[in-house]
Each structure stands twice: as C-alpha cells, then as structure tokens.
Design goal:
43% helix, Rossmann fold, 5-stranded parallel sheet
Length: 224
C-alpha cells in the first residue's frame, strides 16, 4: 500500500498535525539522518522552528546488516533489541565491535552535517523527533532514550508511517506521538512511498543550511 508520494509530502502532512507548535519559542525539530532530514525540513518551513539532526546508527546483524540488533547514538547511549540479540546469540564483544564501527561513522557525520556547530540544546525544550518512517523501531527508540537523558520539556515523535506494533511501543516512550499511517500489512518503510530516493550527505547539509537561512530571513522580516 503506497501512502506518500515522497518524503516532502510526508513532512507537509505531519506539519499540518503539529500546527499547535508553530512559532513555539522553545521548539526545535531534530531529524534522524538521512531520510528523516528531508521530512524535518518541511516541518521547519511550516512550523518556523529550527532544524537539527540527531545522529543515531543502526547496529546490523552479521550477515544481515538490514536487520537491526539495536542502535547507538551520538550521545554515546546504546539500545539493544533483546529479542534480536538472543536470536543471534551475540556476546558483549560482538556488540562492541559493531558499536565502535558505527561510532566512527557518527563522528564523520557530526563533522560534515554540523560544520563546526554544536548540537542544539534540548534541555527544557519542546523537541519534535522526526524520521521518514519506522520498522523495528530500534533507531527511533535509541534516539528517544538518549534525548530523554537530556531532559526535554516535552518530547514529540513525528512518524509518517510504521507498523501497528512498533507504533504502539513508540507511543509509550514519548510524551506525544503523531503518526499518519499504519498500513496492514506493513513491509519496508520505502514500500509506502512512490519516490523513496536515497537522501545523500550533501542533501542533509543543504537541508540544514536552507532551514537555518529560512529562519534567519523570517527573523529579519519580522523583528521582535
């Protein structure tokens, strides 16, 4: 079942559900790269909120890298799916090898995406965490867990599409969840988009720069 034409459409649809947070002085959008940034950019435009990334990397299973054993975040926290870890009979050493490899990629993305900027302060803010969809939820759950430790005022999950069971679990972990579609049957996230072209690093950088420019121009147009 196709739900969205592309990520941009998904972002605009999410924004329509989140208009209560438009121009919120404490609001910030944090998107999971790379696909989530295309969605988050549309939220930034519509809600007039700053956009940042929250870099979380999936820990793939040996021999099946698309199967998520868990995830590691840029703040250093590691989330493990207990069912998956048991199924693959992984030791702590196995997990650590995978974590270290992903930490290197996280560092590369931090340098490239933020271009010297620090990660946005999330403490005491209204944080909208967005991705282009969830399947097992490992990356999203890891991100929620890490952001919780930063003590946001209110944590909102914004998800275009996901399976019923994962969405139910996600709803328990955030203060508010906006989800647009829960198709049955659910296949991969990309199956529910007409255009699910891969978002590249250069696209992420461009989205972040354009969001920053948009906010700056709006501030100059409407001072005070």
């Amino acid at each position: 079942m196709v739900v969205f034409q592309n990520r941009e459409e998904a972002g605009r649809c999410l924004a329509a559900e989140l208009m209560a947070y438009r121009d919120d002085p404490g609001g910030v959008i944090v998107a999971l790269p790379r696909g989530g940034v295309a969605v988050g950019f549309q939220l930034s435009l519509a809600l007039h909120l700053p956009l940042d990334v929250f870099i979380t990397r999936k820990l793939g299973a040996v021999g099946d890298p698309e199967y998520a054993l868990g995830a590691v975040t840029e703040t250093g926290s590691v989330y493990l799916n207990p069912t998956a870890v048991a199924e693959f009979c992984l030791s702590r050493a196995d997990v650590e090898v995978s974590v270290k490899a992903q930490q290197k990629e996280i560092a590369r993305r931090q340098n490239l995406y933020r271009q010297g900027r620090k990660m946005s302060t999330l403490t005491d803010r209204v944080v909208i965490l967005v991705d282009d969809g969830i399947a097992t939820g490992s990356t999203f759950f890891a991100s929620v867990e890490a952001i919780r430790h930063l003590k946001p005022k209110h944590l909102i999950g914004a998800i275009p599409v996901g399976p019923v069971d994962t969405i139910a679990e996600a709803r328990k972990r955030v203060d508010e969840l906006v989800v647009l579609a829960m198709p049955v049957p659910f296949w991969a996230v990309g199956n529910h988009y007409v255009d699910f072209t891969q978002v590249e690093d250069r696209d992420v950088v461009e989205y972040l720069n354009l969001a920053e420019e948009g906010l700056r121009e709006r501030t100059h147009s409407f001072p005070g």
